[in-house]
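Quick review question:
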């Protein structure tokens, strides 16, 4: 499995004429060698890989790391890396420019004199664009757990409880069901606060008649889930129901449109034109969705500016919304796996307008 992930680096070795690539981003490191700790570096050449850590992580690395030789470093990690680079004669090394601080780059340049350090931007993250079978299983597991947790706490939503109360019960329920944690700070935005696409849970109390947008996800074994429901507390008004049904229809037609070969820009337009034609075009400002995996937001991006094309094995979110200042908002989000002919929806909370 990991060997086939290493093979995805092949095009970078050729394109940039590299002898090795140095990874310091922990998501990429986990993807390529399985290490789940919080500090380390991975050097991958065409036919070998070395994982570098300090003594705090040696035992964990020996347990977890596959397809790479574990090297325990002394006080200065780059010294150990540098001596190996010299030993093997690697004179041209690629690195993750978008995950490297200026000071780390200066240190690298200082310790690796005469070696060409080649900046590769966020393109190195493209190795994680397609999810293999093990990743899809991990994403399905965390998505199911998270959806079930939400379904289980819907009964706690009633007038007088705060948005924070809802966020807390949801997080506890996820942990009870085996989540390692939450994927991000949940958005719980009720009433007029629903007009904020990223309104984090506040101490506002839920009132009867409020629409409540809950954007939530769990984290398990490094993988994230992402899903949004908008529910009503008590009977919603006519306008709330109308907005909900427009967003839901935009969400449904976008999911039906997902197929390999469709550009992410065109998929975005499927939902965007539907919302525009309903007269709410000014109230849908963000992109339709994003890739998801070891990070909550990964490639590809689904937006009017997107240049990516959908391919089998990508895992993306579909999350149209309408946000009306002074009134409130609705967002509905599912995570889907792009298949050979369409997609599988892996998040499973009810997307109807539930009246609680
Ligand atoms: Zn979300
Ligand atoms: Zn999302």
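Suggested answer, residue by residue:
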């Amino acid at each position: 499995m990991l060997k086939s992930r290493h093979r995805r680096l092949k095009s970078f070795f050729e394109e940039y004429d590299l002898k090795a690539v140095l990874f310091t981003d922990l998501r990429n490191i986990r993807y390529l060698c399985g290490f789940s700790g919080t500090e380390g570096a991975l050097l991958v050449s065409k036919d070998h890989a070395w994982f570098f850590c300090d003594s705090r992580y040696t035992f964990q690395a020996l347990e977890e790391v596959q397809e790479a030789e574990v090297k325990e470093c002394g006080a200065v990690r780059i010294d150990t890396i540098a001596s190996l680079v010299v030993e093997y004669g690697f004179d041209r090394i690629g690195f993750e420019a978008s995950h490297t601080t200026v000071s780390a780059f200066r240190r690298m340049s200082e310790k690796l004199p005469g070696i060409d350090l080649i900046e590769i931007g966020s393109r190195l993250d493209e190795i994680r664009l397609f999810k293999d079978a093990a990743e899809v299983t991990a994403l399905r597991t965390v998505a199911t757990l998270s959806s079930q947790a939400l379904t289980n706490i819907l009964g706690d939503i009633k007038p007088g409880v705060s948005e924070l109360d809802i966020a807390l019960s949801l997080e506890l329920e996820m942990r009870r069901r085996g989540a390692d944690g939450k994927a991000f700070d949940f958005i719980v935005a009720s009433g007029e606060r629903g007009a904020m696409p990223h309104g984090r849970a506040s101490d506002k109390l839920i009132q009867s008649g409020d629409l409540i947008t809950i954007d939530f996800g769990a984290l398990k074994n490094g993988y994230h889930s992402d899903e949004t429901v908008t529910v009503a507390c008590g009977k919603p008004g006519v306008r709330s129901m109308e907005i909900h049904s427009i967003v839901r229809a935009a969400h449904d037609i976008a999911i039906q449109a997902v197929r390999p070969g469709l550009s992410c820009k065109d998929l975005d337009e499927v939902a965007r034109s539907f919302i525009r034609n309903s007269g709410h075009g000014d109230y849908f400002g963000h992109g339709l969705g994003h890739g998801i995996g070891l990070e909550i937001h990964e490639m590809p991006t689904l937006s009017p500016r997107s240049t990516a094309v959908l391919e089998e094995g990508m895992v993306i979110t579909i999350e149209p919304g309408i946000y009306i200042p002074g009134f409130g908002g609705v967002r509905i989000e599912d995570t889907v796996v792009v298949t050979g002919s369409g997609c599988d929806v892996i998040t499973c909370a009810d997307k109807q307008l539930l009246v609680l």
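Why it works: Residues 133-153 form the longest helix (21 residues). Residues 226, 290, 317, 319, 333 surround zinc ion (ligand 2) (CB under 6 Å).
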